[in-house]
Structures are given as C-alpha cells and as structure tokens.
Amino acid sequence: MRNMKNLSTDDRYLEFGSGPVIVLLHGLFGALSNFEKVIEHFQQDYTVLFPQLPLYTSSLLNSTVGGMVDFVNVIIEEKKFSNLHLVGNSLGGHIGLVYALKNMDKVASITLTGSSGLFENSLGDGYPNKENYDYIRKKTEYTFYDPTVASKELVDEIFNTVNDRAKAIRVIALAKSALRHNLRKELNKVDIPANIIWGGNDNITPLFVGEEFQKLIPNAKLSVIDKCGHAAMMEHPERFNELLEQFLMDLNVKKSE
Asked: What burial letters (b/e) apply to 149-185, b meaning 16+ CB within 10 Å?
C-alpha cells in the first residue's frame, strides 16, 4: 500500500488519515485494492474507514445485505463516528443505502458507483463454468470497459473464491439477498445529498440504473464517466477522486452559507 498507513489494529476494518469520516464499502468480489487510489488521495484531509466486509466468512444466516449492514453498524457505533460520508461500489452501494435509511441522523452524504439495489446483471450468479479459468477471466473482464484492468491477480482471486465451496455459497446467498432487497420504494426517504458516479459502459449495472437512482433519490446528482465499466474508482481513479472531492467541497460550501 503506497503512502497508506493503516491506523487500526482491528482486523475488521482499516483506518487511514484524520478529519471528517469517509466510509468505503466494497462490492461482492471487492477488496482494499479496489479503493487504493481513493485512500491515497483522501487520507490527507479525511479519516478513511474501510470495513473489511465478512462476505466469505459470515454465517449463512448473516450472508445478506442486512447482515453486512449490521457488521458496519457495529464498527461505526464502537468508533462513535457520525456525520459520515458513505462511498459504495456495487453491493457496497446497496449496503450504504440500507445503512443510511436506518441511520439518517449519522450520515452526511452518500456516493454510489455501480450500485446494486435496483437492477443488476450477473451479480454473483452460479458461475456454471467456474472451474474454467478462461471463463472466469472473461467474466472478470466483462466488469470493465478496458479488459486489461482485470489483472491476473484479480482473476486469480475471483477464480479461487468461486471454486471454494464455502465462499461460493456465501457469494450466491449475498447476491440473492441483493436481488430480493430492491430499494425502489424506499429511495425517496434518502434525505441526504447523493453523489452518483457511473460508468457510461457499465455492463453489470447499466447507465439507466444510475439514471434511475438519480430520479428516485430526492437530492441526487449524476456524473457519467465515459469509457468506464462497473468500478469507476479502479478504472478511472483520478476522475473518480476529482468528482468525489468536488462533491464533498460543495457540501462544505453549502454548510457555510
């Protein structure tokens, strides 16, 4: 981790920097590396909290969106954090929205990128050819506009995950939970500024999904990144950071008016 000093000794989360709190929520196959550039950029002026979601280790009973929300809530309660800026990718955006709906008094804003919660393609499907490495490589590449972003390390990690029976069962359980937990009827209650950063070429949650989030969340702004797939913070980290930083700066300006 270049220029990233973890301030935590708790294996449930990583913590960087100091200042207002940004909480980063990763997706179904996500990891710290997905947000490395975001952490490097924002740790200078913010406390960046990265919960290491127990996607593959929780009980089957807790392998749900609600189970992950409870996990995040425990950490935030223990840290006594408030005025949170949530940032979630894919399933992480879904978790962030559910957390916000339950804890609106603690959340200052939410940023969604490729979030589930309305509609998604291929989010943790059964991977019928999971033992075929080339199949997993192509599925991973499908996540990005630029297939070279799907590094061998990333493909190896997903290949190993879907071929580990215990992990695969939990991935499928979480994916099914996300599909069941549609937020369409609840998004009008998200009474905080929402920053929607979407890949214009997202195959998993296509652009119309980001546009629908913008319509359904009362105070939402949509920014589209061209030549970008499902994980904007990985594929176009500089532009993602620029959009997130401007959003947070605008919030501070509005508070001071």
From this structure: bbeeebbeebbebbeeeeebebbbbbbebbeebebee
